Each structure stands twice: as structure tokens, then as C-alpha cells.
Amino acid sequence: MIAGTTAWPLCPRPQADASLLSWFERVAHEYDMSPTLLMSVVRQDGASQSFDALPLVDRLYESEVADRISILARLTQTERRGLWPPMTGWDLKTRAYCAFCPYCCMEDLRHDRTPYGRQSRQQSWYTICRGHGIALVGRNLAQVPANGSYWSTVQLRDVADYGHTDQYSCYKGRSDPAVRSNILACLVEIERSTAEALAGITPNLFLWGKLTAEEFLVVLSDLTTWSLTHFAPVRCWSAAEELTASEIQEGHGLLGRTARISGTADGKQRSTRSLSDVASPKVRGAALWAAHALMATHHTATSDRPSGKRPQDRQQARLSRAAPASRRWLAQRQAHWPRDYCRSRWIEVEAMHANC
Predict the structure, then answer these.
(1) What is the pLDDT of residues 166-203, one digit of tens each?
(2) Alpha-carbon distance 180 to 299, whole Å?
(3) CA 24 to CA 17: how far, in whole Å?
(4) Do residue 130 and residue 187 come from a single domain?
(5) Among candidate residues 263, 229, 277, the one with its CA nearest the CA of residue 91
(6) What is the DSSP string of 299-352?
(7) Could you tell me if residue 290 is inside a domain?
(8) How far apart are CA 210 and CA 200, in angstroms?
């Protein structure tokens, strides 16, 4: 047992991009303890509970706990800022280590590092691994060992082979139209623009229309919330969420409407649901891809869905099949968007709603 009053004798240094929970699990693993038991040592409350990721994450972000961990782990100011970065407003509300890239983890093992969660993947708009050009995999927290995250090469290879193929790694760094038409490339495009907008960089005028960085984020937030929200009075989802069989295949398992309303889907949800509310990277990816279809100048869908050349054509096709309540909600949000942008890039949702 390690003492709760002196600096930890063994403490792995956090990677520059490590997520807080992932690093804390690694510390606990050094002492063959559960993260929850290590938290009881930090808090000096003697608690001994089963591993529960969400309460543990909440405790990790308490200011007093953060101060104490910084002392016990002898963190530098740079390391502390990396583990507790400023909130962006697009952070996942769970704050748990809930999405990962199997290939990144296998690279960690090849370099004699324990696989760890990346801080960037705590952002709700981040669903694609930039380095490997593949969709992130959801982490089943119920299967996390008692002493934290620890995967073998065989386990990770099984996950990678099941969910992905290496053919998509060739898309990294390419930008020709044939690649941009691919679903994953569309996601990379909209996620890169989101990251730039959060950094204050004005979005590409030709691709997104005349929007400031802040305006781009407002429109994207509204469209993804619209796509993820259950508006219909019956057990179904908005048309923007539905993906065809080819799109699901191309997107490496992005969840369409049929899959989402069966079993684990939240079919009773009535209040609005934003990207930050959704842990699954597949569900968030589906919403971002729908937003790309509605916003981007160029968007080519897969072979079994017709796609209009203009954003207005795609908006007309998708909104005409949406629930009336969803069109009403989107029309209300559209009233707050820049007028010039709406005139040049959008159909009048309010008029469509009035005529339906």
C-alpha cells in the first residue's frame, strides 16, 4: 500500500497528450490497485468501492483532488496543464476514457508504453484517428480490469481486425476529390475545420460559406444536436440520422436509425441531445457526417443514396423526410444564423415547415 501523505515512489510520467483518467489508471496499475482504491488513498477517506468510471472521473476534476494528485505525483506545471486542460465547450460530458484507436494502442506496446487514452479524444467532435485514418472504437468501461486499462497485443489486434481495415490508412494527408467523397474523409474534413474554428481560424469560404469561426461552431452545434435528437412522437429518429447499408459499411460501423432504436438505443429520449452528451464515437460520427452533408459545398454520398450537387439540394431531400417537430426546431435555430449565410447556402426551413 502506498502512503497518502508522501509523494508516490513510483509514478509514470503522463504523456503530453494523455487523458486524465487514462493516466490515473496507469498509476493505479503500478501498485496493482483499482483506480477507485487509489482515489480513496488520495482523498484519505478509506473508501473501497468497485470501479465506477463516471464518479471517479468527476472526483478527478475536483480542485482539491487535482491539487493533491499534483503533489503526490510531483507533476510539473506543464504536466498538470496537460492533464487538466481548459474546457473548450465541446468536451464529452462523461469525461471518461471512452474512445480509442487500436492501432495507436498497438504502437504504444511496440514502443514499450502502456496503451493510453489521448486527450484530444475527449472532444465530442473527434471521431477519427488522424494518424491512421480510421474511426475510433468505443471503449466498453464494463470490461475494464479492476486494476485499470491494460491490453495485450492480441486483444488489440482482434479489435482492429474486427472493426477496421488497413486500406483507409492510405487516405492520410490526401485531399483529392475521390478521397473527399469517402465518408471517413468527410469526417476528417469537418473535424479539422472544427478544430481550427475552436482555435479562432476562419473556416474555408469556398467549402463552408461565409462564416466566422464562432458562427461555424454555432451552425455545427445546431445541426448535430438536431441530428441526434428524438423529435418524433413515435419510436423513430430524424431522417438525418439514417444511414444506408453502404454508408454504414464505408463508415466502419456508423450507427444508422434501425440499429440505434434497437436494444441499447435511447428510444425514449425527448429533450435535445448534443454531441457532448454522446459517448459512442460511431453515433457522434453519424451526426457529424450528416452535418457535412448539409453544410459542405461538395459532398458525395455512397452508391446507394442519391446526393444533390448543391447543399440546398441535400437539405431539401433530408428535411422533407424529417419529423415536423424537427423542422420546427431547426427553423427556430436557423433564425439566429447569419442572414447572408442563410440566403446563399440554405433553403428556408421555416417556409418548408409552413408548407408541410
Answers:
(1) 434 444 444 443 443 467 888 889 999 999 999 999 99
(2) 8
(3) 14
(4) no
(5) 277
(6) ----TTS---SSHHHHHHHHHTTS-HHHHHHHHHHHTTS-HHHHHHH---HHHH
(7) yes
(8) 15
